[in-house]
Amino acid sequence: LGPGDYTTTLHKILNFGDFNSNGLLTYGEARSLWSLLQHREFLLLLLFQDNDTFPRINGTCGSIYAMEHVANNKLFNMKSNSWLSIFLSDAYHWQFPIWKRRAKMSIGMIEFMMDIFEKNGVNYYMCNILPTSFGYTARYDIKIIDVLSVVSKYHLKTEMSNRSCYTDDDCTFSHNCKTQCNQELRKCSSDLVVPNLKILCDLLMDYLMYGAPNHVTVDLERLLHQCQSLDNRQFSAEMDHAVLLNDLQLFIWSQIKYG
């Protein structure tokens, strides 16, 4: 996670490891907890247990853990099973839930971006923002499926700053986490070129604009286009990111809060 004061985080982890809730950590409990923490997915789930977009940890046994089942394990499937997909490239749109349910889930994804932007003094990135990275419950609450694609800024910086490069393509950490190649030093930078929010808005442009109510389309498309133009190389990038997150959340919420 990088340098910092993690007293609160450590207390949270140790309290979780006190499986019989007697205020003490036995050798067996400590051993089990340590083996669980070797799984990066488990650590992320534990760090974000108070965030509704992350699946719950249902239980543990030694180094094994079970987490909440998510009824729908992808946001949507672009490879539609319908025979019409042979003739229509956008046939997958027909499997979308009604617009208000999509709007609710979109707010969940935006709130997720807010949550990982800064958590207990640590900044995180989502390095795979794809329809298969998100799922949802029977009540249309969004859940993160690809937990391992959540990476701390420090982790990314450590990984990329030691990487040699000749082109920007050499500075690819994952599908959505890419930095630039410093041609003089032949080293990758540690800052993302494309903000996470821009990539999410690319996804929402397809997911939310399809079938959107007529009175919503103009303002929603304007906000999403602003979001798609975000660039981390701009001086005001961090402020723009925060403002657009807030504006998108408030606008979408205003369309469904009475529905």
From TrEMBL:
The protein's name is FAM69 protein-kinase domain-containing protein
Question: What organism is the protein native to?
Answer: Octopus bimaculoides
InterPro entries membership: FAM69_kinase_dom (IPR022049)
Q: What PANTHER family does the annotation carry?
A: DIVERGENT PROTEIN KINASE DOMAIN 1C-RELATED, EF-HAND DOMAIN-CONTAINING PROTEIN
Report domain FAM69 protein-kinase positions. Answer: 33-228
Top-level taxon of the source organism = Eukaryota
Entry-linked Pfam families: PIP49_C
